[in-house]
Amino acid sequence: MPTFVYMTRCDGCGHCVDICPSDIMHIDKTYRRAYNIEPNMCWECYSCVKACPQNAIDVRGYADFAPLGHSVRALREEAKGTISWRLKFRDGREKNFVSPIRTTPWGSIKGPAEYAAPRPEAFASQELAHEPDSLKIDGGVPTLAATRLKRRLA
Amino acid sequence: MFANNPFAALSATISPAAMQAYIVAMIVLVAAGTLFDIVHKGSAKYFFNNFRKSKGEPVGGGQLASIAIQTAVVDVLASGEFCSTRRRIAHLLTMYGFLLYVVSTVVMVFNYSTASVWPHLWWIGGLMVCLGGYWFWFFIRADVAAEGNSPLRLMRADLFVLSLLASVTLGLIWAWAQARGSSGSPVWFALYIIATTVLFGSVPWSKFAHMFFKPAAAFEKRASYANGTRSNLPRPADKPEQFGSARTAPRHY
Q1: Of A25, A153, B18, B202, whose CB has the highest number of CB atoms within 10 Å?
Q2: Does residue A26 sit at the B interface (CB-CB below 8 Å)?
Q3: Bridge-partner residues for B223, per DSSP?
Q4: Nearest one of B222, B211, B209, B212 to B68, comparing CA atoms
Q5: Contact A55 B231 (CB under 8 A)
Q6: Which residues on chain A are in Cβ contact (under 8 Å) with B141?
């Protein structure tokens, strides 16, 4: 589902260029409008679709699973904290969804750089980062003791 | 300097008729270039085909007239389509500066009025174009601000802005040089004419014609919102623009 830009709606602001994680949204040299330089490398993340202030970016469905004649469009309204979706099916059915942009307050989730660097001995441990706290298991991570096995190890 | 018509001093070497013929030629070039651009790219054909195909609720003539007025006032006169304040201000400066500059040039060359306000408006318009244009060129352009390219990198999309800035800058320099009696003023005038001819003659290759296309696109966008199609976009969410109140903090995150 690679993205494409409606050049009549695009005003060349560059928001999609800034946000694309695959670095494939760039500015056309002839018209100074955005375009997808490599649809094959599109992550289909909809970041550019949501970021575009002019709603100038749409997504094309791959013909093997998305029927031709469908439409999926999103409208992100940051002031309201909502992301709305409008899905149109080939048979004329239409579904609309409205979701919150996020369910946690802005700034409440720490980025990776805000955590302390791991100690060298942590790399030798079986536990992954932020474990066992992030697992939220009372009594710590359950471990398997050899004495508790039904069949003794040889 | 600011109260003198620079074209009046020029009429000693170039006849007013020649200057007026040049202006008429530039207007013809813009019209012909825009028509050629439309026909060559087929943009009008595709635009009206899409306009006809978009089926939605019928929109009355009165509502269409209201949409046209809103387009003219908000999108054209106030450049309302820009979402970035910086881009909008730069565009307003350049647009109104260019209008002032062109209208005052025509008035002075055709000698419609000898009031001293016209040379002032010519200078003010030129300086507005320079302020908005250079600000856009060095700081706001997407290929510099978003792509990180050098501001000195040139591409075809720069043809309109660059020729506009060159024409206005060289025109102001010529007027200043002529007012000071500089012997180099004919050279500046020659460069000014070359840049102006490139500006108005390169319409089929530059983005000059977008000043006519964008209002049509803005009208079509408003009409699609009025007839419910909205380019298949969802309706704005039925949520308040500003959550919370003076007593409670907003909880929409």
Answers
A1: A25
A2: yes
A3: none
A4: B222
A5: yes
A6: 32
